Amino acid sequence: MFALWSGSTTTGHNGVISNVSDQLAITTGLADDNSFSVSASTFNPEGWDYDNELVDIDVLAADHFNNMVPAGTVIVFTAEGGAIPGSCTTGGLTNPDGACSVQWRSQNPRPFATTLVQCPVPFYGDTNPPCMGTSKTLFDSGINSLLPQPRPGRATITAYAIGEESFVDLNGNGLFDVVDTNSDGVIDIDKGETEPFTDISEAFTDHNEDGFYRKISQSSSLADLLVQPVGSVGEEFVDYNNDGKFNKADGKYTGLLCASGPSLACTDTGLDDNRAQVNIFRNIPIVMSGSTPMIRLVSIDGDTMTKATGIDLMDRTDPLNPIPKGAQTVYLFVSDVNNNTLPYGTKISTSIDNGKLLVPAGGEGYAIASNASNKPLIYAFTIGQEDQPNQKLSGALVVTVKTPKGSPVSVTLNIKDGG
Length: 419
What we know:
Elements: E1 2-8, E2 14-20, E3 31-32, E4 36-40, E5 54-61, E6 74-79, E7 87-89, E8 99-105, H1 136-141, E9 154-164, H2 222-225, E10 278-287, E11 294-301, E12 304-307, E13 310-312, E14 314-315, E15 323-324, E16 328-335, E17 347-352, E18 356-359, E19 366-367, E20 377-384, E21 394-402, E22 409-416
Parallel strand pairs: 3-9, 13-22
Antiparallel strand pairs: 1-2, 4-5, 5-8, 6-7, 6-9, 9-10, 11-12, 11-16, 14-15, 16-20, 17-19, 17-21, 18-20, 21-22
């Protein structure tokens, strides 16, 4: 910044004093939409059957210039299930600048706890989780693997703060401007001749994780809106402008950085300290995972999935002269009672007394990491010939699944070979 002052000196002559500053910083201090992050230490605590399972919820916020918001910025929370503190404040003694944290805990309510869980497509007559059907393609697409709404055990956490929408500052003046995109000398705001910006609705809880508030922000058709998704019946919004109704994205930039020229392209949402502001928000799911593993061993041939009860490592086309075959793979489909992921820290272990377990390498098994999957997870087990004959024609692979607090559940695969 260059500054120039002029005036009389002590000797009566006009004097000019100039100075260049490299310490000037321009920030709004107001969180903007694309600089607002919410994360969880664990997305799948063992909270369906147990209370007081804790998850750290961290919020990071910065302004349009990606400078951290100042100490004292308030972040507000709501939770569909379990319990969470109402707010936290950035900075201070316990939080770093531009950040604050709270702890969510498992307890009632547990979302849709009375819902009867039945898979959309049975697996050879079985409608209990893990939901999969018999087509791998339809499993991957979710048609056979996702429960119809409502989906129990998934608790949406909403975090929001007063902030502004984000924009791309094309001319470098630090303000939101109109742009003559077609170079015709006329600014047409209705045709989007502005700098690019994010346009958001009022904050809302997204219980069914579809990205829409009760379908309202998806469609303007009244007939369509009368058919609400079953999983969204408990969704609520935060009425920032107190007009008693949910406001969708309005097609205008909402924020303090609106230049004076393009005022028609900007939104005023109130007066004084609330002028041209909006609640920016994020929804994240916490899976209140159950402690009872629902498991199934499956063979996959092309697109067809069938129950795996045994494998034969020998080609017995000629019964008198069996020939060793290559390694074979079976797949373990796992979920909890609500078809969600099992909890973080669940162990999948193996024991085998015939053949050799090639995958997982060394037979060390698997561990379920932090995730929020709403359909079964899949783990591969590949069995080949032993390095040295063990003089056994048959044996078994036993796969055991145990959550951190639950009882183990096992499934067995019979294995035949040439001894």
